[in-house]
Design a protein that fits this description.
Helix content: 10-25%
Structural class: alpha/beta
Bound molecules: NADP nicotinamide-adenine-dinucleotide phosphate
CATH superfamily: Dihydrofolate Reductase, subunit A
Number of strands: 10
CATH topology: Dihydrofolate Reductase, subunit A
Number of helices: 5
Strand order of the largest sheet: 5-4-3-6-1-7-10-9
Strand content: 25-35%
CATH architecture: 3-Layer(aba) Sandwich
Length: 165
């Protein structure tokens, strides 16, 4: 299975100066870890460099880049389709696209599932997602609200709707 996971604020903001636009939200980080653990995480080079400097633990870290990068399990300079074929031959695990915008746009038409976190509030951003455009062929099957925290969030699971296939 191929999925993707992202978080956005009320403006659709997902990034600012190659970081997340909002302050640290523990509940969303825990959700991200639980959703991706023991899976293959695929990211673009900008997202890799936005991480604290080490691979994400307990996951197979795959970075797409035309450059040599130290640290990930795989650095691939292949077409989006070749990347999926290559990883599916090597592993029998879910592939999760974890960003950033470039990768979400490339893979949005092939993922089966989207894990979305809605972050309450609006934050300065320079990178945006158009949720309406991304989710139009998906339906929400799960939602969990975290209201009693400093920045309330909703975590959602969307699956590709059969009628669009
Ligand atoms: N809110 C969220 O959930 C979330 C999640 C992740 C990231 N983000 C944010 O998103 C922003 C980064 O997004 P972005 O769109 O700028 O960058 P990105 O998608 O992380 O990386 C794009 C780069 O990856 C490399 N690449 C992509 N596809 C490739 C392929 N098939 N083969 C070889 N190289 C390939 C290219 O760079 P090179 O070839 O030059 O290396 C490309 O410029 C940051 O602000 C980050 O904080 C937000």
């Amino acid at each position: 299975m191929i999925s993707m996971i992202y978080a956005c604020d009320e403006n659709g903001g997902i990034g600012y100066r190659n970081k997340l636009p909002w302050p640290h939200i523990k509940e969303d980080m825990v959700h991200f870890m639980n959703t991706t653990k023991n899976k293959i995480v695929v990211m673009g080079s900008n997202t890799w460099f936005s991480l604290p400097g080490a691979p994400l633990k307990n996951r197979i870290n795959v970075v797409l880049s035309s450059k040599a990068i130290d640290g990930p399990d795989h650095v691939l300079n292949k077409s989006p389709t070749e990347v999926i074929e290559y990883l599916q031959k090597l592993y029998n695990k879910e592939i999760v696209i974890i960003g950033g915008k470039f990768l979400y746009n490339v893979y949005k038409d092939v993922v089966d599932v989207i894990y979305l976190t809605e972050i309450s509030g609006k934050y300065p951003a320079d990178t945006y997602m158009n949720n309406f455009n991304i989710l139009e062929k998906f339906e929400m099957v799960e939602e969990q609200e975290y209201n009693n925290i400093e920045i309330p969030i909703k975590t959602q699971k969307w699956v590709r709707h059969e009628k669009f296939n």
